[in-house]
Amino acid sequence: MAHKVMGICAGRHDGNGEIAVKAALKVLQDKGAEVEMINLFDYNILPCTGCEGCTMQMGNIAMGKQKEYHGCVLKDKDDVDQLVTELHTCNGVIIAVPTYDLAPSSMYMRFAQRFLAYELSFLKEIGVVKEDPHTVAGLIAVGGSMHDWQPLALEVIQASMFTMSITPVDRMMLQRVGRPANVLIDDNADQLARAKEMGEHIWEAMETPVEDRKWLGDPDEGVCPNCHSSLVYPGDKHWDGVEFPYECAVCGCGGTMGTNPNTGRPWLVIDPENGHIRDRFIDKSRAEHLNEIVQTRINFFQKQGEIKDTLAEYKAMKFPTVEIKR
Ligand SMILES: Cc1cc2nc3c(=O)[nH]c(=O)nc-3n(C[C@H](O)[C@H](O)[C@H](O)COP(=O)(O)O)c2cc1C
Description:
The protein is α/β, with parallel strands linked by helices and about 325 residues long. It has helices spanning about 15-30, 55-60, 80-85, 105-110, 120-125, 155-160, 190-205, 285-305, 310-315; strands at about 5-10, 35-40, 90-100, 105, 135-140, 165-175, 230-235, 245-250, 255-260, 265-270. Helix 1 (about 15-30) crosses helix 7. It is globular. The termini are far apart. Bound molecules: flavin mononucleotide. The site of flavin mononucleotide (FMN) has 19 residues, from helix 1 and strand 3.
């Protein structure tokens, strides 16, 4: 079966992310994959306006109130529609994002926060996407420092994957590569080799039947054994009363805190019965979240009349703003 892989970079041209993506793509190309690469800086990517036009339409279609899905309101105004349509034809993706202020750069977030209008499970259901590409991802955070200055980077990139039903199978953090092409100096040979290994992993995953695919990165990485994120926090009651002692901030799995037998470090022990009911990477579990959105929305529409006067008061309330001199 032919494999097609897109490399996505949100960093500088000829920067460390681009080099790491190229190293991984070259491995894939040599194995016979069709590869392509984009740098988000070369495209017009508008920020999500927050109009909720996509999810309102999805809800209306689900309730039989609307037949055709018109997609994002920005569909014809920038390049995102063409980029995502192309991405939907790829079985693999390698994404490199610079870490700015501990987290993924705004260039990447701007792109990823447009994914909501392209919920793959929804597009499949209504026939816009004919064939599920079962895309697997390798994620690269690129930073000038080490983990302590990139604690939210991989986690947030990873969290951007579930809307598109993309399965991360590997991730790595490029560390201490501040200057462009810093990754090419000898000290970083291991890091570049790791990027190439990511290419191998993406190939291996694409060659594996979808139901048998598994995590190919470091099995002991992170605190969550499901998605390997390092962000596990004490859980609070969810909207429907579900509660876990601890849950993963990225995938949403729940359980108790234990110890990884291989490393002796903290490790989430996922509840064997219910631990995956909030796993955002499972379409069925994510559908529960849609249920939450629908319930919140129904409640709002039922009570909308009650807020007419207070809303008018807030609308009338004006404060000095900042005038820009042009
Ligand atoms: C605005 C800004 C904020 C940054 N913040 C961080 C940071 O919090 N942690 C870190 O490790 N590196 C930080 N860096 C360094 C970049 O992540 C680093 O230069 C990286 O190599 C950029 O990727 P690129 O070479 O692919 O463009 C920052 C750089 C900039 C410009």
